[in-house]
Amino acid sequence: MVYTILTFVFGITTLGFGYATFNLMRKHEQVEDWVVALQNRVSNVVTEMKDIDEKGLFEADDEVGSIFKQLSDITLTLESFTEEEENATQS
Hints:
- The chain is an all-alpha fold.
- It has helices at about 1-50, 55-60, 60-90.
């Protein structure tokens, strides 16, 4: 009788842990996909910013240049952040 009860309890516990593990793995994969998409978007933004200002015309203008500089700094910060994330996931 005790053996049957213990087997039942351990079986239910094992099923619960299995479901929790599967659920956490699925959520982890979703977050990884989101990070990869973010990395791709940031790298595209950086590439487009460089393409737009390949001649340095925006940086030369005072008003537009200051805003462009701020945008450039933000994109470089995001790029360095995503590179750190990419290096961490590869390790």
